[in-house]
Specification:
Length: 132
């Protein structure tokens, strides 16, 4: 069974940093595309970052480019989201997700709101709150 578990959320002041972790079980990390998403109260879930293991490329939403970095540790079967220069607008529940359909190539298009349906395994979420 594919399972994902986020950790590392919390409260931080604007300008600060947090690192989220997503531990994967039931599969080997680079078998599937992995992404980070977030959902703020009253808003749709939006893509933050995703990684294509085949060519090692990572993709980011425009709102987080230059501030967030996604990486993976195959030995720990864990992916990370390093978040720097956090802003109050980054406040949301952050989720990691896996796309088990291996026929779909992981590209920036999979961060689009309409592409959320292609991500079929989700963690429970981690709250990130950025105070001003």
């Amino acid at each position: 069974e594919v399972q994902l578990a986020e950790s590392g959320g919390g409260l931080v002041q604007a300008g600060g940093s947090l690192r989220l972790s997503c531990a994967a079980s039931g599969f080997i990390l680079d078998d599937y595309g992995i992404g980070w998403f977030r959902q703020a109260p009253g808003k749709e879930r939006e893509g933050v970052s995703c990684i294509s293991w085949g060519d090692g490329r990572t993709y980011y939403a425009d709102s987080v480019k230059g501030r967030f970095t996604m990486s993976g540790d195959n030995a720990k079967n864990t992916v990370y989201l390093q978040m720097n220069s956090l802003e109050p607008e980054d406040t949301a529940v952050y989720y990691c997700a896996a796309m088990t359909n291996t026929e779909l190539a992981v590209t920036a298009k999979l961060l689009d709101r309409r592409a959320v349906v292609f991500w079929d395994a989700w963690g429970q979420g981690a709250q990130v709150t950025v105070s001003s």
